[in-house]
Design brief:
The structure holds two protein chains of two kinds. By secondary structure, chain A is of the alpha+beta class. Chain A has a single domain, classed as Alpha-D-Glucose-1,6-Bisphosphate, Chain A, domain 4 (2-Layer Sandwich). In chain A, 34% of the residues lie in helices and 52% in strands. Chain A has three helices and seven strands, in the order E-H-H-E-E-E-E-E-E-H. In chain A, strands 1-7-6-5-4-3-2 form a seven-stranded antiparallel β-sheet. In chain A, helix 2 crosses helix 3. The relative contact order of chain A is 0.22. In chain B, helix 16 runs parallel beside helix 17. The chains are: A alpha+beta, B alpha+beta. Chains A and B meet through strand 4 and helix 3 of A and loops of B. Chain B: Keywords: Molybdenum, Oxidoreductase.
């Protein structure tokens, strides 16, 4: 089944810092829900291992993330594909960072397709689950900057 | 019925169903209750893609987990077993329990993991790495007819499994001569019976006796033969235990692939193996979906609403393998004109493969979808002629005095009195009052409609549709057997030779044997021996057990009674015709001294010197029953299908809020004639359950696949079953027209209710929305479809008013 995601979030960081964070595997590992490891396999290419739970099924997924059409520190194209025994998914997204009051505005738009057990079991809630996961990502991302801001203040 | 019932002591009597006690008390014995020493457990890894080449399967991470014993793949299994039976002549549509090289639907079994516990096996499943190369796929039946569609089985060459045209009678002439014609399309959605108990099997192999023992939640003809053939072992090395309760089936409990897989693993690993589906496995990959069918119907009729001829094209989406699906287009040929005098019929049966789960037999074996199409036609003819929908049916019904009635496709209907059943139902409901109630609801701003369905339940199942659709198949018998043994203490044990999935066979057998022998049914023990101790039987399919097992019980008991009579007459020095059997005793017709049951039993078991000459000692009898009628092969596309035809007439009042669109059944009345009823509680239970099942098919249940070939309704969150909230109170109006072809005049009732409920409920909804000039032509009619259609129609009508 198809999933569309679109939205924008304000992050308390200037575009350059936000850009760096979004390109840092260590930050992403902390922010992506269920992400256990993220290993660089080439320029702008990563391998990820995730543990996720959707509705009645949960499990581990392995996937690949590739970044392209990068225009630092403004836009980037991301493609994701992954599979586990409980399902598979793939998608592409584009995000755009613009300076905004209080930091940066991060706008994103993406489309994905999921299949396998997860699609069937979770189809009625996949839309809200994916929104929830995106929400968790941004909550974690904001924490990154709160943390560093606090850290910076202490220094 | 009362006049009929008076002939009997136990048949038709208000007696309890003996099985119910253990079920109600929670003491049924199911496959899940079978626990063998050292038993291992299986979990299944299903395919994620509707079609993909399997590039590699890496089980190493799973096998490294403690407690994991084995990972079985399609390559090993296909090497060790023969392909599963295929009823059609399509040798290149090969099917194995595990996908071989390629997966053909999302959920198809790719690997099986064996571990100490089921939970561990499930966890290990996640560690099995399969890499796929995705292939083109299709999900729609009409697309499958296109020769350029991606073939599900490339070796077969196309997606068409079956395309057979039958013409019975002078269809072209009748169409040309008829002043009126109409055409329409209706679609039956893919649903099934989804029993509470999923499929389960336990297999155990003893290498010293070379015996495979199987306990399964099964309802399948020739099950032990099929296991033996697939495993390449002699059939007398397979012992299927029938003393297992089956928690619901209505056709779908046919886990041959599960059994072959578990049996292979039991042999391979030297330990008992259990495979018990969870709900997701059952819904996705259990191969237990039902028909999914498009009907294109043309009818030719006159101004009086008399239907003279019909053309029907049925296109069925079989799913990824042939299974039993194509035959479900064949069985309805035995009642292709329903209860009506349609003179000629052209029928085109098409079955195609797509990348969806495999179909299995479902209650009625294709009859309920066909009845839905026929009843829709009658509604439309009534509407076109300005006739009441009941009147148009009455005018077309076969009349009581015309039975046995030969229909164009070769079946002779046994008996019926359709007009009387309708009259009784209309009198019971006070039809004018029902119409007034509908109109009152409409005046209140509700949408309300009356639905009508009149249809047949062919019963007594033979397999005449198999040779009809596959000329290489020459099966003309579909027997059922019973054995009665009276032991040396006079106790009676009756053996029946299949599993039961809630049909009350123990009650049936005890009632019939008791009726003939004139003894207390509660004293009769019913036994289900394992398959090696069984007489030839074909399991409860085709609504046949009242007719076939009931018939076998009757004849075996008659043989036993005749032997008792001979023994008694000899001992009393009477000629057999001068003796009389009564209540278990034998005495002279003229009265006087009689030998009671104990004395007769004693002679048979201990006094060979008192037995008549050439009499075997002991008291035992068997009967192998052939299906009444239908003993020859098809000729010119015509064949006698099932022997008996029960009739049901549904009358339904449905009301709904035009904005919410949620249908509520305000009144449900069914007139039911299944001939002589053997146990009224069993028949009532079948009818109520059948209506609930039909309500699901009409309004709720569907296995939905999205455009990507993924199944979206894999659990009961999305595959909606009717509950007590949706199920109305049902009023049953009985009538009894005995069948001339059966021992008590009984007919089948295992599919009752289900065969007409979808048509009736659909008709009621169409009546409710007729004022908007719309109708529904696809089942299930979900709430969303109703409210959307009504809203769109209201917008249109308001635009027309304003413009």
């Amino acid at each position: 089944m198809k999933i569309d995601l679109e939205g924008s979030e304000t992050i308390a960081a200037d575009p350059e810092r936000l850009w760096l964070a979004l390109n840092d595997p260590a930050v992403l590992t902390r922010c992506i829900p269920g992400c256990r490891t993220m290993t660089e396999t080439g320029p702008d290419a990563y391998k990820v291992e995730m543990q996720l739970r959707v509705a009645a099924v949960g499990g581990s997924f392995e996937g690949e993330i590739a970044l392209s059409d990068k225009t630092p520190p403004r836009t980037c194209h991301i493609s994701v594909s992954g599979s586990g025994s409980l399902g598979h998914g793939s998608g592409t997204a584009r995000f755009e960072i613009t300076p905004a009051e209080g930091g940066s505005l991060l706008a994103y738009q993406g489309a994905g397709e999921v299949g396998g057990l997860v699609a069937g079991v979770g189809q009625r809630i996949l839309g809200s689950v994916s929104k929830h996961l995106v929400g968790r990502f941004f909550t974690a991302l904001r924490k990154e900057f709160e943390g560093s801001a606090a850290l910076g203040a202490a220094e | 019925m009362s006049a009929e019932a008076a002939r009997f002591r136990f048949v038709s009597a208000n007696r309890r169903v003996r099985e119910d006690r253990r079920f109600v008390a929670g003491h049924g014995r199911y496959v899940a209750d079978i626990a063998l020493e050292g038993m291992l457990h299986v979990a299944i890894l299903g395919a994620q893609h509707p079609a993909a080449r399997i590039l590699s399967i890496d089980p190493s991470a799973a096998l490294a987990m403690p407690g994991v014993h084995y990972v079985l793949t399609g390559e090993e299994l296909a090497g060790a077993t023969d392909q599963l039976m295929n009823g059609l002549d399509t040798p290149n549509v090969r099917r194995f329990p595990l996908a071989l090289g390629q997966t053909r639907y999302a959920g198809e079994w790719v690997a099986a993991v064996v571990a100490d516990t089921r939970a561990l096996a499930e966890d290990a499943c996640e560690k099995v790495k399969v890499s796929y190369e995705r292939l083109p796929y299709l999900t729609q039946a009409e697309e499958a007819l296109d020769p350029s569609s991606p073939p599900v089985h490339p070796a077969h060459g196309s997606n068409v499994l079956l395309d057979k045209q039958f013409v019975w009678g002078e269809v072209d002439r009748h169409f040309a001569e008829s002043p009126r014609q109409l055409s329409f399309r209706v679609t039956w959605g893919r649903n099934s019976t989804v029993p509470i108990e999923t499929f389960g099997v336990v297999a155990s192999w003893d290498p010293w006796s070379e015996m495979l023992d199987v306990w399964a939640s099964i309802q399948m003809p020739k099950y032990p033969d099929q296991i033996a053939r697939a495993l390449r072992i002699p059939a007398n090395n397979v012992r299927v235990h029938h003393d297992v309760d089956v928690g619901g089936s209505y056709g779908v409990k046919r886990g041959i692939k599960h059994t072959v897989l578990a049996a292979h693993l039991a042999r391979r690993l030297g330990r008992p193996v259990r495979l018990l589906e969870d709900r997701l496995e059952n819904m996705r990959g259990g191969d237990a979906h039902g028909p999914e069918r498009i009907f294109d119907v043309d009818v030719a009729f006159d101004d009086a609403g008399i239907v003279r001829s019909m053309k029907m094209r049925a296109l069925d989406n079989a799913g990824a393998y042939a299974g039993r699906a194509p035959f479900q287009l064949g069985k309805p040929i035995g009642a292709i004109v329903g209860p009506y005098k349609i003179e000629s019929v052209a029928y085109r049966a098409q079955s195609v493969t797509t990348n969806k789960a495999v179909q299995e037999a479902v209650r009625g074996f294709g009859q309920s979808p066909t009845n839905y199409a026929i009843e829709t036609a009658l509604d439309k003819v009534g509407l076109a002629c300005g006739l009441d929908r009941i009147e148009v049916r009455r005018r077309n019904f076969i009349r009581k005095e015309e039975f046995p009635y030969l229909i164009p496709s070769g079946t002779r209907y046994d008996s019926g009195d359709y007009h009387t059943v309708v009259d009784k139902v209309l009198a019971h409901v006070d039809y004018p009052a029902l119409v007034a109630e509908r109109d009152r609801l409409r005046a209140e701003g509700m949408l309300a409609g009356i639905g009508i369905a009149a249809c047949l339940e062919p019963s007594g199942g033979n397999s005449a549709f198999e040779p009809l659709l596959n000329e290489k198949n020459e099966t003309t018998t579909w027997m059922e057997s019973v054995r009665i043994n009276v032991d040396g203490t006079g106790c009676v044990a009756v053996t029946i030779h299949t599993t039961s999935s809630g049909q009350g066979h123990e009650t049936l057998a005890a009632t019939v044997v008791a009726e003939v022998l004139e003894i207390d049914p509660d004293l009769i023990r019913i036994v289900r021996p394992d398959s090696l101790a069984c007489l030839p039987s074909n399991t409860p399919v085709g609504s046949r057990m009242a007719i076939m097992m009931g018939g076998a019980c009757f004849h075996a008991a008659q043989k036993l009674k005749a032997k008792l009579l001979r023994i008694g007459a000899h001992r009393l020095g009477l000629a057999p015709e001068a003796a009389r059997y009564q209540g278990g005793s034998v005495g002279a017709v003229s009265g006087g001294q009689a030998l009671d049951w104990a004395a007769l039993v004693n002679i048979a078991h201990r006094n060979f010197h008192l037995l008549p000459p050439d009499t075997e000692p002991g008291l035992e009898s068997t009967h192998v029953m052939q299906v009444p009628t239908g003993t020859s092969l098809p000729k010119d596309g015509r064949v006698q299908m099932y022997p008996c035809h029960s009739f049901e007439f549904h009358l339904v009042l449905v009301a709904l809020d035009p904005v919410l669109g949620k249908p509520e059944i305000r009144r449900y009345v069914i007139g039911h004639d299944c001939g002589t009823v053997i146990n009224p509680h069993i028949v009532k239970g079948m009818t109520l359950g059948g209506i609930a099942h039909g309500l699901g098919a009409a309004l709720l249940e569907e296995f939905v696949y999205d455009e990507e070939g993924q199944m979206l309704t894999q659990s009961f969150m999305d595959y909606l079953l009717p509950s007590s909230h949706e199920m109305p109170k049902v009023e049953i109006v009985h009538h009894c027209t005995p069948s001339p072809f059966t021992v008590f005049g009984q007919k089948g009732s295992g599919e009752s209710g289900y065969l007409g409920a979808p048509a009736a409920i659909s008709g009621a909804l169409n009546d409710a929305v007729a004022e908007f000039g719309i109708s529904f032509d696809k089942l299930p009619i979900r709430i969303s479809a109703i409210s959307d259609a009504v809203a769109a129609a209201r917008v249109r009508s308001s635009e027309e008013t304003t413009s």
